[in-house]
């Protein structure tokens, strides 16, 4: 089940840039929504990234897992917080979330190694 989450993250970032050149209004709108949704408020950015990761696992989105594991780490989440988030996602999403939770754990291991 080995996937290269760093490559996935980088490839998707590039593709999103290319798509943004073709549909700039749509991508700008999405980016504005993302920025507003993830900014500090009653919840910290870290908490919001962990929520997004839990949702990514339950909806089974590989690219979303790559982005939100990466961004959770950047926002200050610890490996332990990410692992507990995976646990909550598994509780909410059952067997399929367990499989994608394992993939999120794999992504975590890859990103932690890259940041070391």
Explain what this protein looks like in three dimensions.
The chain is an all-alpha fold and about 120 residues long. It has a single domain, classed as Up-down Bundle (AhpD-like), CATH 1.20.1290. The chain has five helices and no strands. The chain has helices spanning about 5-20, 25-40, 45-60, 60-75, 80-115. Helix 1 packs across helix 4 and helix 3 (about 45-60) packs across helix 5. The model has no long low-confidence stretch (mean pLDDT about 95).
Short description:
The chain has 116 residues and is mainly α. It is built from five helices and no strands.
Layout of strands and helices, then pairs:
Blueprint lengths: L4 H18 L1 H15 L6 H14 L3 H13 L4 H37 L1
Jot down its keywords.
single chain; 116 residues; mainly alpha; AhpD-like; 5 helices
